[in-house]
Every structure is written in structure tokens, then in C-alpha cells.
Design brief:
- With 306 residues, the chain is α/β, with parallel strands linked by helices.
- Helix content is 38%, strand content 15%.
- Strands 3-4-5-6-7-8 form a six-stranded parallel sheet, covered by helices on one side. The chain has a three-stranded antiparallel sheet with strand order 9-10-11, with no helix packed on it. A two-stranded antiparallel sheet has the order 1-2.
């Protein structure tokens, strides 16, 4: 118990919380030592959802859409600013070029998400022919962000959303100019994710599906024909290999990012963005980068030397 000078109870501190804070020094907390929480909204029923989320204590709102370069997002941001000012952060997106970034920046977005069709469960490019390679989109938007900062003095962070399969892809996204990344498939694999763990052909998998899939039936986000239905899907219903504990895997990922940054002679993300040398590689180079022309030894099988 924490008491004041007059011995009045002010607060209670639990040992388990104290131990948790000590064991997880990188956890993101607000001024009251609560986890920072974000929530996705759409551009249809935000007038009902936002007040409920703010009352519940949300810290960050994200307008979640496959196409952020629209008047609907500008109107949503305007409404939130009129009712809540700067008391809640609002992110917008997704966009894939400098024009889209500038539009959302001028609309008042606190950060902008980049990426259309690059997610592992997203088939927007297949279905509609729109989108852009994630690396190119991130580079273009990051350049627009830097130009906007030089002209206005306002720095609007950029989030790279999609296209991340291997851990080093996170480092690449940061090197291309992203301030942070959004991860779907990465987190879906872990024990802590709310999706079900299932056994397929003797292997544990986790369910993972897109918001534009028939399973999600998120017509409010993807509707183009009305009648409360999806005219066609923009995502798939899939499985990802089960990867165990989130804590162990995130620790390994962060370690890889730090090691790659050290290889580039960089100790901060800002240094990485300024100093990393990025080069285009061929498909042959990618094959060459892994184990090749050998039979990889299976450590789970005892090899008998004859």
C-alpha cells in the first residue's frame, strides 16, 4: 500500500506487477503504467465507435482500410479532431505513394500506414490490379515524409504494413525509411494470438485470415455493391506454422535486427535510414544467400558414419 503523509491510502502496488515491469523493460506503458492500446476503426460508423473507444481508454486510433487516399478518411480525421482535438492519436492509410501521404498529412493524420496488397493473406492486387511493391512504396512515402518535414517542420511517422516474412524484412523496411512496422502473419503464429491452434498432417498450425476474406465478411470495410455483403473477396483464409511463445520469438527478432544494424555500422534507426546501403538483387542472389548445393544435415536424426 502507498499512503500519504496523513496515512491515507493513495494506491496499491502488487508484487506481481512490479516483477512484470522489471522483467519486461521494453513494454509500452502510458503515464498510469497501463499498456498503450490501439484500436482500428472504419469510415462508416466512427461517430459511434470512437466515443466508446475513447471512454474505454484507447490511446491510438487507426483508420483501417485497404485504400487510404480518400475523402472518407479526411472526413473521419476531421470529425475526431473537432470532438477530441489532439487528446487521441489518429493514424490513417493505407497509401503507396507521396500523393497519398501528403493528402493524409494535410488532413491531420498523426501517422500514415503504407502498403496495398503486400500482406500474406491479401489478394487486392490480384483482384483489382491496384497496389505497389512494398519496398518501392515505402521509399516513395518516406521521401514525401521527409520533404513534408522540411517544408512544414511537422514530422509524421510512417508505418510499413505488409510484405514482411523473414525477420530481416523488418530491418529492410526500417532502412527504406519506415519508422515502425505492422505485423500480421508474424504475430498470428504465436501461442498468445487469439486464433485457434489446429493440427494439420501432424503439424501444429494457427488459423490466419484476411479482413477482406469470406470468413471475416468485413463488408463494412470492403463493400463496393451494398446490401451488406462482399461483392468479391480481397483476402484468403489460411494457416501459418505454430511458433510457440511470443516473448521468445520477439526477443530473437530484435536480436537479429540489432545485429544487422551493427553490420551496417548503425546504432539507431535514424542512422540506419541515413547510412544503410540498399541494392537490388537477382533471384539467383537470393538462392545463393541461403544454403545451396549441399545436403543439409538433420540434427534430429542420428547419422551413422560407415
Amino acid at each position: 500500500p502507498i499512503v500519504d503523509e496523513e496515512r491515507h491510502l493513495k494506491s496499491i502496488v502488487f508484487r506481481k506487477d512490479y516483477d512484470s515491469h522489471k522483467e519486461n523493460p521494453n513494454e509500452l506503458l502510458d503515464s498510469n503504467k497501463r499498456y498503450v492500446v490501439g484500436a482500428g476503426i472504419n469510415t462508416r460508423d466512427y461517430a459511434q465507435r470512437v466515443p466508446a473507444l475513447v471512454e474505454a481508454g484507447v490511446d491510438v486510433l487507426v483508420i483501417d482500410s485497404s485504400e487510404g487516399y480518400s475523402c472518407w478518411q479526411a472526413e473521419t480525421i476531421k470529425w475526431i479532431r473537432e470532438h477530441y482535438g489532439d487528446t487521441v492519436k489518429v493514424g490513417a492509410g493505407n497509401v503507396v505513394d507521396g500523393d497519398g501521404f501528403r493528402f493524409l498529412a494535410e488532413a491531420g493524420a498523426d501517422f500514415v500506414k503504407v502498403g496495398i496488397g503486400g500482406g500474406s493473406i491479401c489478394i487486392t492486387r490480384e483482384q483489382k490490379g491496384i497496389g505497389r511493391g512494398q519496398a518501392t512504396a515505402t521509399l516513395d512515402v518516406a521521401q514525401a515524409r521527409d520533404e513534408y518535414y522540411r517544408n512544414t517542420g511537422v514530422y509524421i511517422p510512417v508505418c510499413s504494413d505488409g510484405g514482411i516474412v523473414h525477420d530481416y524484412h523488418i530491418t529492410l523496411a526500417l532502412a527504406f525509411g519506415a519508422d515502425f512496422v505492422m505485423l500480421g502473419r508474424y504475430f498470428a503464429r504465436f501461442k498468445e494470438a487469439p486464433n485457434k491452434r489446429v493440427s494439420i498432417n501432424g503439424n501444429y498450425m494457427k488459423e490466419y485470415w484476411g479482413e477482406g476474406s469470406a470468413r471475416a465478411r468485413n463488408w463494412q470495410r470492403y463493400d463496393v455493391g451494398g446490401d451488406n455483403k462482399l461483392s468479391f473477396v480481397e483476402g484468403v483464409d489460411s494457416f501459418v506454422p505454430y511458433a510457440g511463445s511470443l516473448r521468445d520469438n520477439v526477443g530473437l527478432t530484435i536480436s537479429k535486427i540489432k545485429h544487422t544494424m551493427c553490420n551496417c555500422g548503425c546504432l539507431t534507426i535514424d542512422e540506419l535510414q541515413k547510412n544503410a546501403k540498399v541494392t537490388l538483387v537477382s533471384s539467383t542472389s537470393i538462392v545463393e544467400g541461403g544454403a545451396h548445393d549441399v545436403v543439409v544435415r538433420d540434427e534430429n536424426i542420428d547419422a551413422k558414419v560407415q
